[in-house]
Each structure stands twice: as C-alpha cells, then as structure tokens.
C-alpha cells in the first residue's frame, strides 16, 4: 500500500517537473494594448501578471518604460521576466495624445467699453498651448466695432493647436457715451437686390459721371459673365460690395442661424472666387428690424445680429428710405423727394435704394439726388470696414 503511494507521488513529481521543464514563462498585460492616454492625465501602468506553468512569477517581472506623458508621441513599455533560467518579454504601445485646446486670454478682459466716435484699438490677446507653447501668432481675429453707432459688438478670437484642438473666445465691445467728434455731412448710397443687367449698369454710369461711390448689397448673380464684369467695374469705381444673401427667400434664410449663415457664406465664397474681393458687410433681407422672420423662427434676428459679427461681418440697415420699393413702380419724383426729406445733417445718412431689374425709376432719380446732395454740401462715401453702419431696433 505504501509502495503504491510512493509511486503515485513520484509520478506526480515527474509530471510537475516535466511541466516546468517544457513550459515557458507567459506575461499577460491588463488594460489596452496599444493604449491611448491624454497628456494631461498622464500614464498609469494598467498592470500585468506572469506565470511559469502553474506558478505565479509576477514579482519577477521587470518593467522598462520610455513613456514621456508630457509630450505627444508613441512610446513602448517593455516587460521582461527571467525565472529558473527561462525568460519572456512582451511590449505595450502607449500613445500619448493631446486633447487640450490652447487657452486664449484677452487683455483688459472679455468686456470692454469705449466711447462713441473714438478709435477702437484691440487691447490684444495671448494664446498658450500645453504642447505647442505660445500660439498667439496663429490666433484668427474676426469682427469689427462700429464706433459711430452705440451698441454691443463682438470680436471673436480663434486658434487650434497642431493636434486640431480648437479654442474660441469672444470679446464684447460696448460703444457708449456721447460722441467726441463732429458728424460729417455724408451720404452712403446703398442698392439692394441686384445686380441686374439694365438698372445696375445705368446706376454705375451715373455714379461714374459724378465720381460718386456707393455700396451694392447683392444677391446671387448666377453664372452671368456680364454681371461679374459689372461688379468688377463697381469695385474699380470705388464702390463696395456687401452681402444681401444667396437667396432672398425669407422662409429659407430665416429658418435657422445655420441656414442664414450658409446663405451668406456661400455667396461670400462665390464673390471671393469670381471678383477677388472679400465682402465685410451684410444687409439682412427685410432689414434687422423685420418681423416677417417671426413666421419662420422666433428670436432669429436677435441671434443673427450676434452670429454675423462673430463670423467677422458688420451689418447695416438704413436710416433714409428712398421708398423705391414701397410700390411696384414709384415715380422718380417721389424717390427724389423722399431722399431730400429724410436726409439730415445730424447723422450719417445711409439711403436704401434698389437696383433689381424693375427699378428703372431709381436709376432715373439718381442724377437729381446726387446733384441736390452735392449742392447741399454732402459728400458721398461707400460703406467701409469699421463703419458707420445703421442698426435698426431688432424686433424678433
Ligand atoms: Zn432685399
């Protein structure tokens, strides 16, 4: 009986010994391999275990890590074990990534107040990134402050680090207080809804004759080469081109902020491509005070007056209505008298007119308006970056 037990024990010992003899150590890694860690969080070893046949030899594992969790990169951690003259080695790949956007700080804070008619000088900004360092030079600054016009303006500052993490902050600039400069006697002629073959070309001829600039708030002009030439001519004559929008369809453009901005940026891109000109000012179809937009999206105009600024546009309504759109065909006399009546020495006069195909009487009225204004001592200007612009009261 004892003999049998000894034999069994001997056989078991033989099995175990053979097991160790023929087996190799095995290292098992816990956690992912490869593993992604963010720079900010740092790398923490997720653990491992090692066995030789049935025996736990984890304590014998040596870990060699080259990970620098302060620097984006791909690193290797090597695990080796040496036990009873047998060894094994395995690796883990550690990818250190940056998910932290740069930090933009605005000098003098996120809200500043300046006096009406003073010069706006951006107090400046700084941008630091955890992996790229100082990225101040890459910051894109968008927006204008119209110091002629009391109100709130927005400037946006945007920057990405080399790993695509984007930071964006806005500065609010409040223009307040009484003017410190005398108002000049100026007229800004503005024409909406063009260009049209007949009316726009007549208007350009008149403007050229009197050497007077104007601003055209245009719609999509299709693939029309003649219209492209006309717009180039306008720019050469000292006129500025503003955006009315790709479409004038209220239901479409005022359905959402995205719809409106798409409508603007698609026309902007087309103008840049066809004319090599970058528009900077928008006129909202119906004006910023329109109430028709309420039918499509409540509060949209309040959102849009801010949204367009953050995209780097000024927007302007008018404070003199030529009334050329008050009926299908308004007489030239009525247009002239409306302008004469509404223009004033106490303000910058931005006159609303139209140069769509049906507005022949607007083209008829223009010479008389210009002659009258020059006699009265007005000068003409095209709308320019930094204003003045006119903002009507937003009603939606
Ligand atoms: Zn219009």
Report the total helices.
8
**What is the beta-strand fraction?**
25-35%
User: Which radius of gyration do the C-alpha atoms yield?
Assistant: 36 Å
Low-confidence stretches are none
Largest sheet: 6 strands, parallel
What layout of secondary structure does this protein have?
Elements: H1 2-22, E1 25-29, E2 35-38, E3 48-52, E4 55-56, E5 61-65, E6 73-83, E7 86-97, E8 103-106, E9 111-115, E10 125-129, E11 133-134, E12 140-142, E13 151-160, E14 166-176, E15 186-192, H2 197-210, E16 215-219, H3 225-236, E17 240-245, H4 250-253, H5 257-275, E18 281-282, H6 300-310, E19 314-315, E20 320-321, H7 332-342, E21 349-354, H8 360-375, E22 379-380
Parallel strand pairs: 2-7, 9-14, 15-16, 15-21, 15-22, 16-17, 18-19, 20-21
Antiparallel strand pairs: 1-3, 3-4, 5-6, 6-7, 8-10, 10-11, 12-13, 13-14
Helix pairs in contact: 2-3, 2-8, 7-8
Zinc ion binds next to loops.
